[in-house]
Each structure stands twice: as structure tokens, then as C-alpha cells.
Description:
Elements: H1 2-28, E1 34-38, H2 45-61, E2 65-69, H3 76-83, E3 91-96, H4 97-105, H5 113-116, E4 117-126, E5 128-132, H6 141-150, E6 156-159, H7 165-177, E7 182-185, H8 189-197, E8 203-207, H9 208-216, E9 221-225, H10 240-243, E10 252-259, H11 264-278, H12 281-290, E11 292-294, H13 299-319
Parallel strand pairs: 1-2, 1-3, 6-7, 6-8
Antiparallel strand pairs: 3-10, 4-10, 4-11, 5-8, 5-9
Helix pairs in contact: 2-11, 4-13
Amino acid sequence: MRSLLRGVVVGFATMLPALSVAPAAGQDYPSRVVKIIVPFGAGGSADVFSRQIAQSLQEQFKQSFVVESRPGGGAIIGTQQVATAAPDGYTLLTISNTHTINESLKPEIPYKLMRDFVPVAGINYSDLVMVIHPSVPATNLKEFIALAKKEPGKFNYGSSGPGTPYHMVAELFKTMTGTDIVHVPHKASGEMRNAVIGGHIQMAFDAVTTMAANVKAGQVRALGTTSTQRSSVLPDVPTIAEAGIPGYEATIWQGIVAPKGTPPEIVAKLNAAINQAINKPEVLAGWSAQGASPLVMTAAEFGAYLQKDVDKWAKVVDTAGLAPKK
């Protein structure tokens, strides 16, 4: 009996360190460098806003938050890296519409957004702007549509890869206007941007937050923005809906997710800190000046937002005839 009791006591004693460490894991987080993987090219809106969030998190937690760009494959390469990372809160992923689009456009991807990740927090959303190179002889949307219909396949449009918002909003445009414009995918949004500014492609949809300066500088000509209301940073540019395509609407957004299995207490801690970061008056003012609006949500609300977007783009993929053949 004494040996049995001694064994129980020793066994319980060996459990005490584990029991004491478990609740402390969330309390001590983060105790080392946290990586935020951005599966898009450097200089794009996701990269820029992720770095702003990382800076704020670093200040709040007194710990390093490092942003790493892992572009390629329409965001698949960087996303897969995070999907297989340890679910400990030290590897996070910046996502956008690209991820909700890929769920239906690329069903062969090695992960599933709603299965392999947990939502952490939204960042922001903004309009896109449709631009053409100044060499294109069109001064407004209707003129451009007429040109495209007159010479099917003559004009090219760029994107940062198949399945990205820049690709899908252009396909939505083609579907709603009955035009034939050739898709030219690039590895990153910066390459797409340089291509249309340099005249290597004739058209592109880009985030207002990054393309507005080029519009104002006369490097490209803006034909319309994609939201239901005019952009505050390009107030003289009509929405695409009012310029000739009633019912056209789309935005680009960013958010943060973590690998499935990340402890809820860490998710909650990150959600609170990110919401605090995007609610700062100076951040709100800066984003407003760029045409971006905050996405302040709980983790659960962001999860519902993601599912709704997955469903929305599945319908667009089907309507545009982009669904993979079975």
C-alpha cells in the first residue's frame, strides 16, 4: 500500500510542472519573435498594412513581429507554409479575397481556408480602381468598352496571379460587359502595377490605396472605382456602376489568420491587440486618406465574414465560367 501511495504521489508530482505551464502559455505570449507571412509581393497593400500592424503589435507586446513576403502561386506558396506551421501563435498569415476566391477557383490547393486555419482579426478593406495606360484612346469607361468590343482580344489586363482580387474583379467586368480582354498574370501586384504604368499591358484593377498616387501623377488613366460610392481619395472618378455597368461592386480586404489548433487565448490576445492597432486615431486618419476603412471584428465575426466571402466568390467563379472542369 505504501509503495502504491508513493507511486501516486510521485506521479502527481511529475504532472505539476505541466499543469502549471499550460495556463501560462497564453499569459506569456509572445515570448519570442512572431512571423507574419504575407503571401503577396512586397510593396502591395497587404504588405504595407501588415507592416503597420506588426509595428503596433511590437509596441504593445514589447516583442518582435517580423513580416516576411512569400509571394507566388496566387498566394498558395506562402499560405501552405503557414498551414503546416506549428499552431503556437508564432506564425501568422495575412489573407485577402485571394484566399476566399481560391476555395472555388482552385479546389486542388493543398489546404482549405475554413478547415486548416482559425480566424484571428480583420485589418481593413478598400476600393479598387480600374486604370488604363494613357496610350489607350479612351477617356471614359464607355469608350473603353466600345474599343474592347470592336477588337476582341486586342487588349490585355494584368493581375498578381490567377485567383487574386485583381484577376476576379476583371473577370467580373468582362462577364458584365461582354468583352474579350486577355489576362496576363504576374507574380506580384508590384509587377502588375509597373506593367500597366509602363504600357506593357493596357488595363488593370488595383487597390485605390496603392494606385491613387499614380492616377494623380498622370501615369495611368482611371476609368472607375469598384465600390458603390465614390472613393474619398479619387472623388472625381465615377464608380464603375455609375459609369456604365449598373450593379458592379467589389472591394479588396485583408485580415489575419493562424494555423488550426492555435490556442484560443492566444487568438483572443491577438484579436484585441490588432483591433486596438487599427482603432488608433492616427491609423484611422492615415487609412482614410488612402481610401481604406478598418475591419474591426471579433475572431468569430471575422470567421463569419470569411465564410460569406467564400460563398460570394464561388457564385462569381461559376457565373464567369471559371470553375475547373470536373
